Amino acid sequence: MAGNVILILGGTREAIEIACDLEQIENTTVITSLAGVTRSPRLPTGKVRFGGFGGKDGLFDYLVQEKITLVIDATHPFAEKITKNASEASERANIPFLHFSRKPWKETAQDKWYEVKNSKAAASTLTQKDFECAKNVFLTIGRKDVNCFYSINTKQFFVRSIEPVKELACFDNMKWIQGRGPFTFQDEYTFFKEHSIDCLVAKNSGGYSSYPKINAARVLGIPVVLVQQPKSINLKKIYDREALTAFVLHDLSR
């Protein structure tokens, strides 16, 4: 590949938009890497690769082999391991690394938030007295953390995803709902009403893609147990696409 070669670690809506932005830069090849978890993901413009790298050592080898000149981490704000591996592999390969993320949502006077550090703490919060009356819980913390809630038999959990979460069928308190975002405010409002949702458990993913569910909970006066974003030590985050493009253009002009 000639010219500049940018690797985007993707899987988010913002990563697709960033790829589209950077494809416009002359003499630049954009490669977006997807983990391959979703069988039919939305694909960005430019080149796409699927699957993991085999840890930071595998990623380092890839960066060298493909002559990557810039790495942009635009993964989910909770993808801590990927961010850490990408940062370390880029530093080792002496390649610039940019971390694009979403600003966390901020609580308003109309919200009823219970902020916690992780999914285990969220599950523990639901067993407290304040949530005795919450019977139907919309659980939106990702399939990997759903097991934290299996033992709570006093509530009905609704889990929505593109593809079935097979293990949920083993638990009477779990109900899978098929759905693919992005969802509008009206979509979420209708979902809450149809399933009599009286509590939302979510990760503070930030951004606008999944904000409608937060807005719907606010309008309906429903409490939200919100897992806070992890803090990436010593990594400067870029929250604006235009600022990111400016950083890229400045870096490539050196």
Protein described:
The model has no long low-confidence stretch (mean pLDDT 92). The protein folds into 2 domains: 4-102 and 233-252, 3-Layer(aba) Sandwich (Rossmann fold), CATH 3.40.50.720; 113-227, Rossmann fold (3-Layer(aba) Sandwich), CATH 3.40.50.720. It starts with a strand and ends with a helix. The radius of gyration is 20 Å and the shape is elongated. By secondary structure, it is of the alpha/beta class. A 6-stranded parallel sheet has the order 3-2-1-4-5-12, sandwiched between helices. The protein has helices spanning 13-22, 55-65, 80-92, 119-126, 185-194, 211-220, 241-252, and strands spanning 4-9, 28-34, 47-50, 70-73, 97-100, 113-116, 136-140, 156-161, 174-178, 199-203, 224-227, 237-238.
Based on the model shown, name its key terms.
elongated, alpha/beta, 254 residues, six-stranded parallel sheet, Rossmann fold, 12 strands, 7 helices
Helices and strands in order:
Layout: E1 4-9, H1 13-22, E2 28-34, E3 47-50, H2 55-65, E4 70-73, H3 80-92, E5 97-100, E6 113-116, H4 119-126, E7 136-140, E8 156-161, E9 174-178, H5 185-194, E10 199-203, H6 211-220, E11 224-227, E12 237-238, H7 241-252
Parallel strand pairs: 1-2, 1-4, 2-3, 4-5, 5-12, 6-11, 7-8, 7-10, 8-9, 10-11
Helix pairs in contact: 1-7, 2-3, 5-6
Q: Helical region count? A: 7
The overall pLDDT average reads 92
The CATH level-2 architecture of the largest domain is identified as 3-Layer(aba) Sandwich
Distance between the termini: 19 Å
| Global shape | elongated
Q: So what's the CATH class of the largest domain?
A: Alpha Beta
Number of domains as seen in the coordinates = 2
CATH fold field value of the largest domain: Rossmann fold
Give the oligomeric state: single chain
Rg over CA atoms, rounded to whole Å, is: 20 Å
Unreliable stretches: none
- How many beta strands in the DSSP annotation? 12
Structural class: alpha/beta
Going by CATH, the homologous superfamily of the largest domain would be NAD(P)-binding Rossmann-like Domain
Major sheet: size, sense and barrel closure?
6 strands, parallel
Order of helices and strands: EHEEHEHEEHEEEHEHEEH
Q: Share of helix among residues?
A: 25-40%
Lateral arrangement of strands in the main beta sheet: 3-2-1-4-5-12
